[in-house]
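Re: the request from the purification team.
They wanted to know what the chain is likely to look like in 3D before they choose a buffer screen. I agreed to run a prediction and write the result into the notebook, where they can find it.
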Amino acid sequence: MSASARETLLLVQKCAHTFSFYDLATGQAEKHIVLPNFPHEFTVDPKRRRAYVGHYGIETASHLGDVGGHSVFVIDLDSREHVATLNLWPFYRPHGLTVDSEGRLFVMSEAHNVLLRFSDPVNRHVPDLAVPSGGYKTHLFALTKDAQTAYALNLLSNTVTKIKPNDPTFTPVAMVPGPVPEGNVLSADESLLYVANRGDDTIVAVDTASMKIVASGKTRRDPNRVYRFRGAQGQDLLLTTNSGEHSLSVFGTDLQERRCFALPSNPLALSFHPADRAVYISFQDETVRRLNLDSFEFEQEIKTLREPDSSYVWQH
């Protein structure tokens, strides 16, 4: 990053119904873009020009009486404006989203268990392909670097399914990693998928070729996310955010816990700083805190609006 470049924390605040810009140097809010109620996850394109925000549309899946949203909001990061809305209808409650290296946007409809592809989301505001996830209440997914394979996490069928996002003729391959699988991350070589199971407080490694469990470990209570990062010695390590006891755990790739420490509130989401050895954790106490991955000490606290959720450090 050049000396003149700036860093901004991009943040969806689900219960404040905003997509927000926070200056990282000062922690001060610069702009809040008000969106329709309950935006949720978001992703940023590889050129860091646009953010795509899913309109989940209800506070949680347990809030009955409303099917949720069926849109993705396009935010121009340079102008800091909501410039377009992508239409997912008749598929509702977008949750997991990612953009591949070609700029194609992939969006998971949790309500209808369908992965949608927008091959040109800048110019075409409806999907050009829909592929079934092969499970029920599909919440998140992991996409390979070449975007030819995805692994869907299905909360209600307790499965992980291997699917082909660009091939609707492929039959999903299902396996059971444990009850209520949600958190997930691929290994660096994509030969393993690490899955955190909220139903029995476990973390497992799934061989992506055979779709079999090859290692398992015990987490703290209710691990809702798992992330991969490089340790100080260059080794791969895993983080789990343990929502049930407000803690963060560090695991080796052998899935043995290396350390665990208490967090100040319920962790909601986490994002990595692209250059420094740090992460930004969103908390239910309406803060985002910067955590140093070497010292495991908090170095900064940003006061936010209601329900800070997904974040991204935008260098510009």
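For the purification team: The mean pLDDT is 95.
Please add any questions underneath this entry.
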